[in-house]
Amino acid sequence: MSLGVEDLQSETLRTLPGDDVRQILWRFTDRYDLQMMVQSSRGVARGPVARLVAGGARNTHEWTAEKSGLLKAFDDAGITAVFLDPQQGGVIEGPKNFALALVAFELAWVDAGAATSSLANCLALAPIHERGTPEQRDTYFNRCAPPAAGEAREIWRGAFALTEPIPYVGVETGLLGGKVRVAEWEEGKEPILQVDKRGRFITNMAFARFVTAAVDSDDPRLKGSCMVILEEGDPGTFDRGNPARKLVHQLSSTRDPAFSLRVPASRIIGGYTVKDGVIIPCYSHGEIIEAVFRRTRVTVGVMTSAKLLSAIEPVIRYHRGRFRGGEIATPGTPRYDLGLQMKEDVLHRLVDIWATGEASASLGFAAARLFDEVDPLEHQKEEVFAREKVGRGTAAFKAMRRHQKEALDCLQSGTNCDDPMVKFVLLDSLANVLCPACKLWNTGHGANMMREAVSLMGGYGITEDCPGFLGYKWMDAQLEATYEGPEAVQRRQLSVTMTNELFLAQFHRWIAEMREIGSRRPSTGACTLATAMHLWLWTLNYLQKATDPDGSKLYHSSRHGVTFPLADALCWLLAARYFILDILELEEKGAASPVVAEALPGLLRFYSDLCHVQCARAAGEVGRVAAELVFGYQAHPEWDGEGFQAAYKEEELLALESIMPGLASTATDVIAADGSHPAKAGPCARFDGYEQFVRLRARLDGCLTGAQLAKDRAAEAITKVMIPEALDYPA
Ligand SMILES: Cc1cc2nc3c(=O)[nH]c(=O)nc-3n(C[C@H](O)[C@H](O)[C@H](O)COP(=O)(O)OP(=O)(O)OC[C@H]3O[C@@H](n4cnc5c(N)ncnc54)[C@H](O)[C@@H]3O)c2cc1C
After folding, report:
1. Phi/psi of residue 599, nearest 5 degrees
2. Cα gap 22→600, rounded to integer Å
3. 217 with 167: CB under 8 angstroms?
4. What is the DSSP secondary-structure string of 605-640?
5. Peptide bond into 730 cis (omega under 30)
6. Are 280 and 274 in contact (CB under 8 A)?
7. For the CA of 169, the nearest atom of ligand 1
């Protein structure tokens, strides 16, 4: 099968991509357990969840009995147990990042608040999963497991409490107001702790029976910060607080709780040691939340992708049917058959939404699969460190540096990296980029694109009756961009992790990979992407060394105007890259699937057009950001009247050339063969020393060749694709 558009001229997309296509794209054709999980999650989403939304359950932020009924539906469908290992009552072996992402995708397809209710329980357990002692894991995982047949037991549900009332924890997670003190410590006995913690916006708080809470020591007998497990029933106050009057995710419970409880020191997550009469928690709250969020944020990113992709079918149906009925169009006329799809703009905008949805899902699921690979390697690393008695902190840092150096050597020499430690540092450097990138781009840019989807439904889009609940999904997307760390947090993290030499060495290889794909499969836009990646790398290198006119460094942690846009630009590149890789997978594996094979040529043609559109958009963003940063921090030249006149003379010539070719041929020769720029004395920019950048930028613009033609083809496909008669929810 070839992706060459020429070979596929007569083929087009026949139906919306179904499960068989998704299983190939997201690599779970051989995971029957996950396929079953997807089906049962979908049953809950398009059944009870959809009925609640359609019935108006979102009109209150109170946690009602009917919303509470969803928890039982999750239990019955096996959703509650996805997080657990089989010996704890779960059904999925091994790491579960990808499985959880698939469940979140299915639930968020209908309502992300429902997805959040289910995920918040995993978030509560995550600190225990990542850093808990074996006893803590056994206790809480068993309590959270649905009862076995014949077992009469109520399932425990949890909440994760990090955020605190102002002025404490929000984006800045170090400013803890929650405190822990030693309340009692009898000789030879376990210390009893007094924990005082107030939470703000804590999910699941209407019904959680335990809370994993971040607190700081307020006692010289306890060192640093930690996370503790609080239970309803512990002596003291377990006040669930008032519901947050939120506008979004109304199928989840969010409250501002207050706790003042006495708990045994064994509730410190990960345990503690005692040295010179001081309790030393094994993990600070910062270490635990870092391990937790780097996994759970990916799942949040996937939720917004689901919304974008869920918008396609309702929008197509609305557009096609817009002029049916009455007397204004009769069957067989374009007005009747195509309706609003006669208008290019609505089609082009839908192509953009679809391409964003696909690219963000590709990035999100790639990140989730990556964490499934990282998890066992990370455990191996910890075992090696324990065996070799490598402590945490500086010792671990030094050991990791050694392995990073080995990994870099492997990459540079092109040899295979089989050593698990080397493999770990390589994948870890990627995970440190993919997680914030997916959380940032999928939710932030995704929220913007959800607005586009809403706008395509006209007035209907902003009503409760909008098919596909698009208005709700738009608002909800803003919460996904906010909780578990808003965009600033992700940008801040990316600005550090994307400069890691191991990541950059891999990124460098990806440019060659994209060039190679571009030569075989030009219709995907891979060549455009390769040039955009090159420009991004050039810009990063430049900014890391450059200073502003006052001599201050440009690439600096506090200079968000530089680091943040560059982080955003990287996300566009990553999403497009993973989209391309998924299409290549479809191309390779599609023919072997009896369901996919027959319609594969049209499917591939459509997908490569979508991808081309996405690569062009990514290239445009990267070009804009790079140019703004490279030239925007240079002082504007002081012009004498003559210089100003000369500069604008040249611009006039260029404009004239466009309407009277030949008149100003020398001026339009934007870049000479030797790389010099004839417009050196140009109106604003001073190009001296920036020939490379200018050349790359010009090449990037040239690389957009064909992107709008791809958009036209994708738009046409959208006019022809078959969709079901009616949306399958609410049932
Ligand atoms: C419905 C809902 C459910 C939630 N569930 C939970 C939960 O279960 N558990 C939990 O612990 N928390 C939860 N949260 C809290 C959520 O994680 C926080 O609201 C979020 O992390 C942001 O914190 P903040 O609201 O204090 O924003 P702030 O810290 O006040 O930040 C506001 C904005 O200021 C800017 N900003 C702040 N600091 C910086 C900086 N250093 N650099 C650059 N820009 C900055 C950013 O633009 C940021 O978005 C929930 C929130 C909501 C709304």
Report:
1. -95, 10
2. 13
3. no
4. HHHHHHHHHHHHHHHHHHHHHHHHHHHHTSPPPP--
5. yes
6. yes
7. 26
Contacts of 506 (CB under 8 A, 6+ apart): 411, 426, 429, 430
Q: Specify the 3-state DSSP secondary structure of 203.
A: strand
Give the number of the atom of ligand 1 that is nearest the alpha carbon of residue 244: 1
Q: What is the Cα Rg of the chain in Å?
A: 28
By DSSP bridging, strand 254-264 and strand 272-275 are: unpaired
Which residue has 């400013």 as its token pair?
175
Q: Report the nearest atom of ligand 1 relative to the CA of 204.
A: 8
Q: What is the pLDDT of residues 583-615, one digit of tens each?
A: 999 999 999 999 999 999 999 999 999 999 999
pLDDT reported for residue 636: 81
Protein residue with least CA distance to atom 16, ligand 1: 483
What spacing in Å lies between the alpha carbon of 394 and ligand 1's midpoint?
31
CA of 486 from ligand 1 middle (Å) equals 6
Q: What is the pLDDT of residues 196-248, one digit of tens each?
A: 999 999 999 999 999 999 999 999 999 999 999 999 999 999 999 999 999 99
Q: How far is the CA of 356 from the centre of ligand 1 (A)?
A: 25
Whether the Cβ atoms of residue 728 and residue 563 lie closer than 8 Å to each other: no
Q: Cβ contacts of residue 118 below 8 Å, gap of 6+?
A: 74, 79, 80, 103, 104, 107
> Which of ligand 1's atoms lies nearest the C-alpha of 492?
42
Ligand 1, atom 31: nearest CA belongs to which residue?
171
Which pLDDT score, from 0 to 100, does residue 674 have? 47
Residue bearing the CA closest to ligand 1, atom 26 = 170
CA distance 203 to 160: 7
Ligand 1 centroid – CA 226 distance (Å)? 20
Q: For strand 254-264 and strand 202-203, is the pairing parallel, antiparallel, or unpaired?
A: antiparallel
Q: What atom in ligand 1 is closest to the CA of residue 159?
A: 8
What is the DSSP track for 90-154? -S--S--HHHHHHHHHHHHTT-HHHHHHHHHHHHHHHHHHHH--HHHHHHHHHHHSPPPTT---P
- Among protein residues, the one whose CA lies closest to atom 27 of ligand 1: 170
485 lines ligand 1 (CB under 6 A): yes
User: Residue 15 has what DSSP assignment?
Assistant: B
SS (H, E, C) 332-370: CCHHHHCHHHHCHHHHHHHHHHHHHHHHHHHHHHHHHHH
Give the three-state DSSP class for 448: helix
Q: Which residues pair with 229 in a beta bridge?
A: 212
Counts for the chain of helices (H) and strands (E), in that order: 24, 10
* Pair 711, 348: CB distance under 8 Å: yes
Is residue 486 lining ligand 1, measured as CB closer than 6 Å? Answer: yes
DSSP annotation string for 559-621: -HHHHHHHHHHHHHHHHHHHHHHHHHHHHHHHTT-HHHHTTHHHHHHHHHHHHHHHHHHHHHH
- 3-state secondary structure (DSSP) of residue 694: helix
> Which among 73, 55, 69, 58 is positioned nearest to 476, based on CA atoms?
58
Among 518, 578, 573, 514, residue whose Cα is nearest residue 540 = 573
Closest by Cα among 116, 114, 93 to 48: 114
Nearest atom (ligand 1) to Cα of 166: 26
In short, whether 202's Cβ falls inside 6 Å of ligand 1 is yes
| Tokens, residue 685 | 């920019």
Write out residues in the chain with pLDDT < 50, as ranges. 1-2, 5-6, 664-683
Q: Give me ligand 1 centre to Cα 289, in Å.
A: 14
- Regarding the beta carbon of 475 and ligand 1, being less than 6 Å apart is answered no
| Averaged pLDDT score across all residues of the chain | 93
